[in-house]
Design goal:
The chain is α+β, with helices and mostly antiparallel strands. Helices cover 36% and strands 22% of the residues. The chain contains 17 helices and 24 strands. The strands form six sheets. The protein has an eight-stranded mixed beta sheet with strand order 13-23-22-15-16-17-18-14. Helix 15 (451-456) links the parallel strand 16 and strand 17. GO terms for molecular function: ATP binding; kinase activity; pyruvate, phosphate dikinase activity.
């Protein structure tokens, strides 16, 4: 990718930023030691901390959580104008400039972890005026038109409140059975023009071509998503105070769809299901981060990145190890590779199974990251159940031999075994659970809008999505067996039937999901709980050592 020409720096006003507006990765960035998640939200606070560690973080600005409770009329462009000027100076680009345009992402970030519950918008600032300059910057017409069509679709769905299926259907019409990453720039240009027409038709007005209008609309949409039904349901489920609010992070865009060695990924520094100290990463070449976490695309393990760009893979491992050591816990991180260059976009404490929580805490003690007292405080009392897992023994009498004949396989996002009736939507899940019947939720995509149904179901099976999709992260947090990206699964909502390979099932028939090896079986099964004796012994030894030292009782 051609180097970005140097342009004169944008003058930055000498006056201080308005209260509750912060910057990171800039010459006069805010300092993490004077702030906290309550002001910045965890996303921006951790970005600031990574930037202070010298890690590759694109610069950005943050509208703090205090702005979430402010009236929308108070959140005008004047609030972030000076911070945006400092972001322009740090990037060497200008927002809305026809020659050297700055494009930004707009993301939510609360003081508590709420994965996938609120909105994200990418490529803000791209329009008919800035598009030629972006093309000159990158020399990559496919990237330009891919970014533009993504912006129109996500802005339409998030800000204009259009049905996302409008754009998905148009994509399917043009692409047929091809992956969207196989479309060339001329097809993406055609698709963008169709998206613009759809936007005008269904929104009743043209897509906004003023970057400042786009940015203001995106910021308002992200703040508004704090009160979305799914966010409210998540807060109620986890006892989160609605008054804490969310911050909004505006950050320079980097592009995983830039061609060459480019892509986007999401990962954990350790296996979140078992706690094993190995990286657990989903990566997509020629993609943006939302492709992985949205639950609408299948992703792959890290092998594609490790094989295509081994130096970048090693750089990622080293960077995430530093973050884990600095923050003192297993991390869930997002990253982008643009033309062979690594950027870190997010890190947060990773959701994990109970068994993984024990293993990770004990390993961190042995590695010198945590003290024994810190590990004990983090875990609380631990019994044998937390140090074990459920596995299939044999098929139930009268059912098929589920343990011997898998119907299909998928990527496992949460270990364990779950059996239940097939349910295709929330209404069916609620109906059958009210009757006391265990159910499994089967969906095409792993999306967080299914949160209420997932809370009631015993497990989730999807035909698309990645292990690190937001919905899969939530399923793991809820302890639900979760299999994603099952290519053999086809769902016909009109006839309320599903196909798994060559077998067809009606809604209400029973399946079993084995999250231990990613298998799907017909019928019910018998299970047993197996305790990890070594893990339990390690925990008890730690408790005994603390007792001997007079620190506290053994668990």
């Amino acid at each position: 990718m051609p180097a970005t020409p140097v342009i004169p720096p944008v003058p930055v006003p000498a006056s201080p930023l308005p209260p509750e507006v912060y910057t990171f990765g800039t010459a006069d960035a805010s300092r993490a030691d004077t702030l906290g998640p309550a002001q910045l939200g965890f996303k921006a606070w951790n970005l600031l901390r990574m930037a202070e560690l010298g890690l590759p973080v694109p610069p950005g600005l943050v509208l703090g959580t205090a702005w979430c409770q402010a009236a929308a009329a108070a959140r005008t462009p004047a609030v972030w104008r000076e911070a945006l000027a400092r972001l322009e100076q740090a990037s060497g680009l200008r927002f809305g400039d026809a020659r050297q345009p700055l494009l930004v992402s707009v993301r939510s970030g609360a003081p508590v972890s709420m994965p996938g519950m609120m909105q994200t918008l990418l490529d803000i600032g791209l329009c008919e005026t800035t598009l030629p300059g972006f093309l000159r910057q990158t020399g990559h017409p496919r990237l330009v038109w891919d970014a533009y069509r993504r912006l129109v679709a996500t802005y339409g769905e998030t800000v204009a409140r259009l049905d996302g299926e409008l754009f998905e259907a148009e994509l399917r019409t043009l692409a047929g059975h091809r992956d969207e990453r196989d479309l060339d720039f001329s097809e993406l240009r055609t698709l963008t023009r169709r998206y613009l027409a759809l936007y005008r038709e269904h929104a009743g007005q043209p897509f906004p071509q003023d970057p400042q209008v786009q940015l203001a609309g995106a910021i308002e949409a992200v703040f508004a998503s704090w009160q979305s039904p799914q966010a409210q349901a998540y807060r109620a489920m986890h006892g989160i105070d609605a008054t804490v609010g969310t911050a909004v992070t505006v950050q320079q865009m980097v592009f995983g769809n830039a061609g060459g060695v480019s892509g986007a990924g999401v990962g954990f520094t350790r296996d979140p299901t078992s706690g094993e100290p190995v990286p657990w990463v989903d990566f997509l070449l020629h993609a943006q981060g939302e492709d992985v976490v949205s639950g609408r695309r299948r992703a792959h393990g890290h092998q594609g990145l490790a094989e295509r760009a081994p130096a970048v893979w090693q750089q990622l491992l080293a960077a995430t190890r530093r973050v884990e050591a600095a923050l003192g816990d297993m991390q869930d991180f997002e990253f982008t590779v643009q033309d062979g260059r690594l950027y870190l976009l997010q890190t947060r404490t990773g959701k994990r199974s109970a068994r993984a929580a024990v293993r990770i805490a004990l390993d961190l003690v042995e590695e010198g990251v945590l003290s024994a007292a810190q590990a004990a405080a983090r875990l609380g009392p631990v019994d044998a159940a937390a140090c074990g897992w459920t596995r299939i023994v044999a098929a139930m009498p009268g059912a098929t031999n589920a343990a011997a004949e898998p119907l299909a396989r998928a990527a496992s996002a949460q270990a364990g075994v779950a059996s239940g009736e097939i349910a295709l939507d929330e209404a069916r899940v609620r109906e059958r659970r009210a009757a006391g019947v265990p159910v499994l939720l089967l969906r095409r995509d792993a999306e967080t809008r299914d949160l209420a149904a997932l809370e009631l179901a015993g497990g989730l099976l999807t035909s698309r999505g990645a292990r690190t999709a937001h919905a899969a992260v939530v399923a793991r947090q809820l302890g639900k067996v979760c299999l994603v990206g099952c290519e053999a699964l086809q769902i016909d909502e009109a006839t309320r039937t599903v196909c798994l390979g060559e077998r067809s099932f009606r809604e209400g028939e029973v399946l079993t999901l084995d999250g231990n090896d990613g298998a799907v079986y017909a019928g019910d099964v018998r299970t047993e709980t197996v305790t990890d004796a070594d893990l339990l012994a390690r925990w008890r030894r730690l408790g005994a050592a603390r007792t001997a030292a007079g620190i506290g009782p053994s668990a």
